[in-house]
């Protein structure tokens, strides 16, 4: 079985001599959904941009399946990794089929190659079926809902036949039903195709439920990495998010459940210990 992974070694990233991330090290392996979490400004989007070679690190290396991403051309990157951005700018007059078929572009050998080969058509159709948007094939993008449009973007990513999926807040601005549907879909894709997925999420309960591994960013570094139970502790939540929280386990969803109680109001960890909160 192929190993599909992202490996980050000693990564440092900055803008205009200002460090955003320092000494980032982790592995996202085959069959894993790795969640990137952290407060606003922690560097989550910067990390994704570096993984996808939009930004060049000041130090360290990003490996995609053991290849240095800096030494890969754009088409090779796109054949290895598919990105589901937070916002997709595309003409609303394209049909759903048109949108999904764009995922085949990285596999076209040259500009004279046929774009709609039998294989391209089959993969496009299979990707729509896997996501459940085949019935929308002839609809234009302005005629589908926000949740359906996000499903279409994921189908386009699948049409790339990626080994690695990168998703930047894929459930933002969606209702609860579509949030669950999309994240279950990501889980099924990762398990069924043995790919690895890295997903940025804001909601901690969602991250705990749908990710195998979490990476909590804080103060330009990884504060904690591990399973949701290992990462989402009262102490880590307090330090990263500056809130008091209660962490319980729910048998119903087989996951931890976090209840935010209050902001810290400037209290230090020592103050909270003295108050008997720790």
TrEMBL record:
ABC transporter domain mapped to chain residues: 6-244
Pfam families in the cross-refs: ABC_tran
SUPFAM superfamilies associated with the record: P-loop containing nucleoside triphosphate hydrolases
Alphabetically ordered keywords of this record: ATP-binding, Nucleotide-binding, Translocase, Transport
Source domain of life: Archaea
CDD domains: ABC_Iron-Siderophores_B12_Hemin
Chain coiled-coil ranges: none
Keyword Ligase included in the entry's annotation: no
GO molecular function: ATP binding; ATP hydrolysis activity
Cited PANTHER family: HEMIN IMPORT ATP-BINDING PROTEIN HMUV (PTHR42794)
Name the record gives this protein: ABC transporter ATP-binding protein
Organism: Candidatus Altarchaeum hamiconexum
């Amino acid at each position: 079985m192929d190993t599909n992974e992202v490996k980050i070694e000693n990564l440092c990233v900055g803008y205009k001599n200002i460090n955003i991330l320092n000494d980032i090290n982790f592995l996202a392996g085959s069959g894993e959904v790795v969640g990137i979490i952290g407060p606003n400004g922690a560097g989550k989007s910067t990390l994704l941009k570096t993984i996808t070679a939009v930004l060049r690190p000041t130090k360290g290396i990003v490996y995609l399946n053991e290849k240095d991403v800096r030494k890969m051309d754009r088409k090779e990157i796109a054949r290895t990794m598919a990105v589901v951005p937070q916002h997709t700018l595309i003409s609303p007059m394209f049909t759903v089929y048109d949108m999904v078929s764009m995922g085949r572009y990285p596999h076209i050998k040259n500009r004279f190659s046929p774009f709609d080969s039998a294989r391209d058509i089959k993969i496009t159709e299979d990707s729509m079926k896997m996501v459940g948007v085949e019935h929308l094939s002839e609809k234009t993008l302005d005629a589908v809902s926000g949740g359906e449009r996000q499903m279409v973007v994921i189908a386009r990513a699948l049409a790339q036949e990626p080994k690695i999926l990168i998703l930047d807040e894929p459930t933002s601005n969606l209702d609860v039903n579509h949030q669950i549907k999309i994240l279950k879909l990501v889980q099924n894709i990762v398990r069924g195709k043995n790919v690895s997925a890295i997903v940025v999420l804001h909601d901690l309960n969602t991250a705990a439920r749908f990710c195998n591994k979490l990476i909590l960013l804080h103060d330009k570094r990884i504060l904690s990495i591990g399973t949701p139970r290992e990462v989402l502790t009262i102490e880590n939540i307090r330090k990263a998010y500056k809130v008091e929280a209660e962490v319980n386990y729910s048998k119903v969803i087989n996951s931890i459940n976090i209840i935010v109680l209050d902001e810290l109001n400037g209290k230090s960890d020592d103050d909270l210990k003295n108050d008997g909160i720790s």
